[in-house]
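Late entry, written up from scratch paper. The run itself happened at the end of the previous shift, but nothing got recorded in the book at the time, so transcribing now.
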Amino acid sequence: MRYIFTLLVLAHLSIYSAAQLNSISSPDGSIELSVSFDTRLEWDVRKNGKQIILPSVAGLEMATDEFPSDGDKIKKVEKEQINETVYPVVPHKDSRIPDICNEMTIHFKSGFSLIFRAYNDGVAYRFQDRFQGKCDSAG
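Output as recorded:
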């Protein structure tokens, strides 16, 4: 009985110590973008099941701090389907550009967010903060 209790406690602890994993796919399902966060934030990409971007660290180094910082935690993850049309100020070859993707926003307790997008032909990410004023990057 004591052995079973010990196993249950260890299993419970391993669940909470494991990295948080989130993912989104492109609208056609051919691209999958995965993000994991434990002590650092890593992302990778697969196309038709084949890994095309190896796990890479995503972070932002600023003059006074870095993101994600040690001890930062995920507050909330939001997923959304985007289907919009962008109208460029200076038309290129098209006067309308379709913006169709799936988006995942990871909000951190520090006030920063990381926004990932999966398109049918690629992926993108950007950092966002909720702070007012100037923010200087280190590089």
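The longest helix spans residues 2-17.
(Scratch paper discarded after transcription.)
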